[in-house]
Amino acid sequence: MKFYSTTKTKESCILIGVIAPHNKTSHVQENLEELSALVLTAGGMVQEKFIQSRETLNPAYFIGKGKAREISLYIEEHEIDTVIFDDELTPAQIRNWEQLTSTKVIDRSALILDIFAAHARTREARTQVELAQLNYYLPRLSQQWTHLSRQVGGIGTKGPGETQLETDRRIVRARIAHLKQDLDKIKNQSITQRKKSKDLIKVALVGYTNAGKSSLMNALTNAGIHVADKLFATLDTTVRRLELSRDKTVLISDTVGFIRKLPHHLIASFQTTLAQTIEADILLHVVDLSNHVYEDHVKVVQGVLKDLQIDTKPTFLIMNKVDRIENQEIIQRAKAKYSDAIFISAQKRIRISRISQAILNFLDNKNNNMIIV
């Protein structure tokens, strides 16, 4: 099964979010801002956003039926290509929306999987993404989905595409089993490669997507990793040697960033990629300080690290992109709250040497009781 990209330029999209009793309006608005950035990364254009407060979710349309009809009129009037929900929809809800609007309807998980399909370069990444997509689409296979063809294409249809959607579940399950076998082989190869460098200290860059991990990797090691100001610009793991002193060298790795509501199928499929992080001795948690919700991003990453059961590893908090901040009070407040953090600009290479020195100091001090942040 081959990946292909059919996203046309500036595919028009609308976004839908729901304010549930346990959510704040500001949080839903921030999620939709991030969803807009994901659409941009996928090659689309957000034309409108819709938000509805709900005490309970509608099992048929997720939002209220009246609101759904209002949105369907907007879709028809403005010739919208794609409807994207910020929350995961059930197969029945997607079918109902498609019948109501005759428009492609996807959710946040499908959008993220689509972006991963477009950005996957190595055999490992492609295998992982296809496995995640097939696990996601398997319960959604239906004759209702036959409009998702190469002719329609667009956001949410990369990767498995029409081949899987028009194939029975038995064949899809067989493909999933085959991909799992491939990943097991890749995992064993990776384990063999990592054993060759088992005596070296391993440092892993972690952080929210677009926090600047790849820029920092380039600044520290001249790795030459592709850097772009968009979400999930880097999926594949890059490992380089970092010389801290004449007698101390570590291995530093950069891999995929985290995000809110990361599809669980994706986390499961990317275990071989995340192995570099899981097996690391030290973590560098990179944060985009210029993002107005950076504190939420810190919590999201800490939550993922906890899910991976590596939240107790020695961790340095790296506050990046200080060069983009004009209001110095933001930096001062961050320094007061995160007193152990290192404040840098990876792109401008400001105070980069402090990171190497901090790692060196930590390794030299065997009795170090560094605070986990």
Can you walk through the features of this model?
This protein has a 6-stranded mixed beta sheet, sandwiched between helices. It has a 4-stranded parallel beta sheet with strand order 2-1-3-4, sandwiched between helices. The chain is built from 13 helices and 10 strands. It starts with 10 loop residues before the first strand and ends in a 9-residue tail after the last helix. It is of the alpha/beta class. α4 packs antiparallel against α5 (123-137) and α5 (123-137) runs antiparallel to α7. The model is unreliable at 1-8, 143-152 and 367-373 (pLDDT under 50). Helix content is 43%, strand content 17%. The chain has 2 domains: 11-165, Rossmann fold (3-Layer(aba) Sandwich), CATH 3.40.50; 197-364, Rossmann fold (3-Layer(aba) Sandwich). The radius of gyration is 22 Å and the shape is globular.
- Numbering strands along the chain, what is their spatial order in the largest sheet? 6-7-5-8-9-10
Low-confidence stretches: 1-8, 143-152, 367-373
Q: Please give the largest β-sheet.
A: 6 strands, mixed
Mass-distribution shape: globular
**Count of folded domains:** 2
**Distance between the terminal alpha carbons, to the nearest Å?**
42 Å
CATH architecture of the largest domain: 3-Layer(aba) Sandwich
The number of helical segments is 13
Task: Look at the helices and sheets and give the structural class.
Answer: alpha/beta
Average pLDDT, rounded to a whole number, is: 84
Stated plainly, the CATH topology of the largest domain is called Rossmann fold
Per CATH, the superfamily of the largest domain is P-loop containing nucleotide triphosphate hydrolases
Radius of gyration: 22 Å
Strand content: 15-25%
DSSP helix fraction: 40-55%
β-strand number = 10
What's the CATH class of the largest domain, please? Alpha Beta
Strand and helix order: EHEHEHEHHHHEHEEHHEHEHEH
